[in-house]
Amino acid sequence: MPGPVETSPAPSDRAPTMADVAARAGVSLSTASLAFSGNKPVSPATRERVLAAAASLGYAGPNPLASNLRRGRSGVVGIAVGRLSTAFRDPAALPMVDAVSDVLDAAGFGLLLMGDDAEHARLPLDAVIYDICGRETWTSYDDLVARDVPMVVVEGPAWPGTTLIDIDHRGGARALARHLHDLGHRRVATLMLEPSHPQREREAGLREVFPDAEVVGSCASDHDAAQAIVSDYLAAEPDVTAIVCQSDVQAAAVVVEARRRGLDVPGDLSVGGFDGITTPWLDLELTTVEQPLADKGRATAEAVLARIAGEPAHDVVLPVVLRVGGSTGPA
């Protein structure tokens, strides 16, 4: 077998190519390509020569994007998260997206964060994740369906042709309400999220136990917005002993505002939340419904990979658990 053919290095004004590697190793371009891809058998000796030639030239390997495009893929999955400027103010969003990114990265896919701009959805994406963020309509949905782009929706809506990854909102809210009922609370109010599938399900679970619960107001999972709403509510000195919030960020805001007004939590007012995030800025742990944020992200990414591969990806509803902390006590 002939030894490696000595050639001059690739010109310094450009990156080395697979052709340069093939020439340095003394093999054909197709053999060099197969040595990298592993799609067909190449003798160990030949593969070693090709890799040695690549190392001497500083060639890292074929462009994965170009390879994906030849297979009709971009290697990129989009995730629509609403307004990028506010999407990650809620601590519950970060563990979920981190888990999605970890699974997709291990499978060789990149993750593109997308805002409300429909232009992003027109990019050559292998799949799209729609993270509800309180919204239930998206102008890009019809376009993605027409292009046959696989879609996975997180926490609703259950659009035709998509895979839904959800949690047991209703069961979790019911468990929190029963906890308060067992503590003797009968006069209960609720601070809700903006209209959405999670908002309706969490309210329904609460009303199974407290059908007459008073609505304080509604807002996104935003501390300042929630505190402003509950400030106006508590200023009227309502006859309630507990406030159930639909997110932990809202619940933390209620605790802060109640204390600012001289109320003891939970002595004068019990406060419950939803999500299970940590609240290091408070000196107590919230009573909350803990959802499996990382598991939700992994389930989302696994559904995406299945849809890209043309395999079945069934809807998933993940369980939640009640975590009793120091923000609730006897009425």
UniProtKB/TrEMBL annotation:
SUPFAM superfamilies: lambda repressor-like DNA-binding domains, Periplasmic binding protein-like I. InterPro entries: HTH_LacI, LacI/GalR-like_sensor, Lambda_DNA-bd_dom_sf, Peripla_BP_I. Gene3D superfamilies: 3.40.50.2300, lambda repressor-like DNA-binding domains (1.10.260.40). This is LacI family transcriptional regulator. Residues 16-71 form the HTH lacI-type domain. PANTHER family: LACI-RELATED TRANSCRIPTIONAL REPRESSOR, TRANSCRIPTIONAL REGULATORY PROTEIN. It comes from Nocardioides potassii. Keywords: DNA-binding, Transcription, Transcription regulation. The keyword DNA-binding applies. It comes from the Bacteria.
